[in-house]
Amino acid sequence: QVQLYNEGPYDKVITFIQLENFERNIKIPNIHCDLPELSYLGGKNLSTLLNTELAGTEYALTENNRPNLKVIFPQINPFNVGQFIFAYEFQTAVMGSLLEINPYDQPGVELGKKVTYAMMGRKGYEDFNIEVENKLKSKKQVMM
After folding, report:
1. What does pTM read for this prediction?
2. How many CB atoms lie within 10 A of CB 19?
3. Strand segments (E) across 55-127
4. Per-residue pLDDT tens for 79-120?
5. Which of 21, 70, 72, 73 is CA-nearest to residue 48?
6. Same domain for 56 and 6?
7. How far is 28 from 21, CA to CA, in rounded Å?
8. Would you call 71 helix, strand, or coil by DSSP?
9. How far from each other are the two terminal CA atoms of the chain, in whole angstroms?
10. 111 and 61, same structural domain?
11. Chain segment 29-50, per-residue pLDDT in tens
12. Residue 63 shares a structural domain with residue 12
């Protein structure tokens, strides 16, 4: 993904979500002392590694003139996550209004919704359910 974001089409705004206060400090174990490519991480906090990797990706995108922003969560809890989701839902509605489109009309997901209705027994989808089940049964399965 990062390669696509840095070198692909200019059609995305990347949002980073950074956590300030992790619930637990998990230390990276010192188990690869013989490998210089990994040994420098031993004893450091996993949270530090995650936020440092975020900073590295943020820097690379900025250097490549790719639009990006960072949302910093002081902590993960229902209130903070709810605020974030609401902000993006509101942003979607406003942008749709500005562009004069319905941002909630998603023809690309409509068929999947209809299949779910049929398979879950929603009234009026009985015939479609038979069609779906027959098609799914005839699909080749590969077990790995």
Report:
1. 0.70
2. 16
3. 68-73
4. 999 999 999 999 999 999 999 999 888 888 889 999 999 999
5. 21
6. yes
7. 17
8. strand
9. 25
10. no
11. 999 889 999 999 999 999 999 9
12. yes
